[in-house]
């Protein structure tokens, strides 16, 4: 069996962890005798587009893709973007034109006839699913689309017609949570060809360590202190704008608390100002191996996101034996798996969230229960379920 994988979620030069969950699953394909080629979708903006983004103070991320990461080889399909093409996308439903351009680029570097199926990851600003449909229609191939979160939660409402068209035509659509599937159905998708398979975690990296030892190694050990942390991109959708408030509320009840913020983003400086005077460390962007160490150092990890496709970071923390307190939004409750650690969205959310964290810090939790549950989400188990989808198609 041979699959063509098309993704706009892949490592880029400025962030090798971008799309790491695509790399991890592809690393397991060999164990199931599945051959594949993977295409990373990219673009190059002209100088005028870059200047306007700068004037609008819009965050720009270097989209330059890498051709190899951890033994996964990426074929690069890239297009040139100018103001005309971007305006067509924004105001004249130009996503089809963009997708056709990518399809042509893929045809230049690969022979589509050689593949048994096409698997697209994502329907983001670069719509991998739409590109897969175009190629599948032309070459009479079955295609699968994996939906990861923001593509449904943020983009489908404004691109409903294209999304429904692609999802209904796919052989199977893989959603990372039931919540995400239900959101797509509320926007017009029938759900008849949808299945739920979450993202997984690397059990060779995320595993339990002795907390006191790892805190000493990280030079943050303080006698009789509790450790509370956050892991993720510091943006509004993660409710990072409320981390300062939540941390201060926790510190008021538990003064001997050390706070850890793993990750980076536009709200970092704001959080720093709001948490002055607390025992807190900001690690910035770090490797997964380092993330696992900091997760192990935590007693509790918080995920108060306003929206989340699934929240694989929850499973990674649980695999380290760390309790996660999360909001009730999106796929977070499914990822956490224990209702007692979920805080319902609503009035006085931050106060209730901090109170739940304090409750867990005071009364503790059964780490072994968390570790045992996480085992069902290893990448081998997750990929086995995805390959079963492939086998049904082929």
UniProtKB/TrEMBL annotation:
Transmembrane segments: none annotated. It holds the Pfam family Glyco_trans_1_4. Gene3D superfamilies: Glycogen Phosphorylase B (3.40.50.2000). Residues 102-202 form the Glycosyltransferase subfamily 4-like N-terminal domain. Keywords: Transferase. One of its GO terms (molecular function) is glycosyltransferase activity. It comes from the Bacteria. InterPro entries: Glyco_trans_4-like_N (IPR028098), Glycosyltransferase_grp1 (IPR050194). Coiled coil: none annotated. CDD domains: GT4_WlbH-like. This is Glycosyl transferase group 1. It comes from Fervidobacterium nodosum (strain ATCC 35602 / DSM 5306 / Rt17-B1). The lineage of its organism: Bacteria, Thermotogati, Thermotogota, Thermotogae, Thermotogales.
């Amino acid at each position: 069996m041979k699959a063509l994988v098309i993704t706009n979620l892949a490592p880029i030069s400025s962030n090798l962890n971008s799309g790491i969950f695509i790399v991890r699953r592809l690393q397991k394909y060999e164990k199931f005798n599945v051959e594949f080629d993977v295409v990373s979708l990219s673009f190059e903006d002209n100088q005028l587009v870059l200047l306007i983004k700068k004037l609008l103070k819009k965050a720009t991320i270097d989209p330059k893709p890498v051709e190899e990461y951890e033994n996964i080889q990426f074929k690069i399909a890239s297009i040139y973007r100018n103001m005309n093409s971007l305006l067509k996308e924004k105001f004249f439903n130009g996503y089809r034109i963009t997708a056709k351009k990518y399809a042509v680029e893929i045809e230049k570097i690969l022979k589509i006839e050689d593949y048994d199926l096409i698997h697209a990851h994502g329907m983001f600003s670069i719509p991998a699913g739409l590109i897969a449909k175009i190629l599948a229609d032309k070459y009479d191939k079955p295609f699968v689309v994996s939906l990861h979160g923001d593509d449904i939660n943020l983009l489908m409402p404004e691109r409903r017609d294209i999304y429904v068209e692609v999802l209904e035509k796919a052989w199977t659509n893989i959603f990372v949570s039931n919540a995400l599937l239900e959101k797509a159905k509320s926007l017009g998708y029938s759900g008849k060809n949808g299945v739920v398979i979450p993202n997984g975690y690397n059990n060779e990296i995320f595993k339990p360590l002795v907390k006191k030892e790892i805190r000493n190694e990280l030079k943050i050990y303080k006698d009789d202190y509790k450790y509370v942390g956050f892991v993720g991109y510091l943006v509004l959708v993660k409710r990072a704008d409320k981390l300062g408030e939540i941390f201060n509320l926790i510190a008021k009840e538990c003064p001997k608390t050390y706070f850890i913020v793993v990750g980076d983003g536009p709200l970092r400086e704001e959080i720093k100002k709001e948490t002055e005077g607390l025992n807190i460390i900001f690690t910035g962007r770090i490797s997964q191996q380092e993330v696992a160490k900091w997760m192990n150092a935590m007693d509790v990890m918080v995920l108060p996101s306003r929206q989340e496709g699934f929240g694989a970071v929850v499973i990674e923390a649980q695999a380290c034996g760390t309790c996660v307190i999360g909001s009730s939004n999106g796929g977070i409750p499914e990822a956490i798996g224990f209702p007692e650690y979920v805080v319902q969205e609503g009035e006085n959310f931050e106060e209730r969230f901090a109170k739940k964290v304090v409750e867990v810090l005071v009364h503790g939790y059964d780490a072994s229960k968390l570790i045992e549950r996480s085992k069902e989400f290893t990448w081998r188990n997750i990929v086995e379920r995805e390959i079963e989808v492939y086998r049904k198609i082929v």
